[in-house]
């Protein structure tokens, strides 16, 4: 029975490949949106959004692409073996040294929080002058996620 379960771990390869492809596509779309924003600024391209909003949306896409990229690298490392040798592990930034699923979860959680902050700033720029109460949902979610992440980190270490 255990042998069958160990063979199923290679299904993670499919998840990793598609997640990696998704990250590349999101990064490409973010770069395309950034180039369009620069075209608005420097070459007077037509757009229904101000260039600042276009740039903020591209940053949001870059961050979501980064979440997918980190997720695919983390899953590869956790389920399919080491990505780098132990010597090269020391050359990686500390935040990218993923040793277990908890560390991957916290890293993804932090990246999602940054994405939510960028999304909120983007929404503020888009809704200039017509603020509504439902715009407060995003900062409330950021607060709840931040508090819960801090609590989980505190109790997981002990």
UniProtKB/TrEMBL annotation:
<feature type="transmembrane region" description="Helical">
    <location>
        <begin position="101"/>
        <end position="121"/>
    </location>
</feature>
<keyword id="KW-0812">Transmembrane</keyword>
<dbReference type="Pfam" id="PF03350">
    <property type="entry name" value="UPF0114"/>
</dbReference>
<protein>
    <submittedName>
        <fullName>YqhA family protein</fullName>
    </submittedName>
</protein>
<keyword id="KW-1133">Transmembrane helix</keyword>
<keyword id="KW-0472">Membrane</keyword>
<feature type="transmembrane region" description="Helical">
    <location>
        <begin position="61"/>
        <end position="80"/>
    </location>
</feature>
<dbReference type="InterPro" id="IPR005134">
    <property type="entry name" value="UPF0114"/>
</dbReference>
<feature type="transmembrane region" description="Helical">
    <location>
        <begin position="133"/>
        <end position="152"/>
    </location>
</feature>
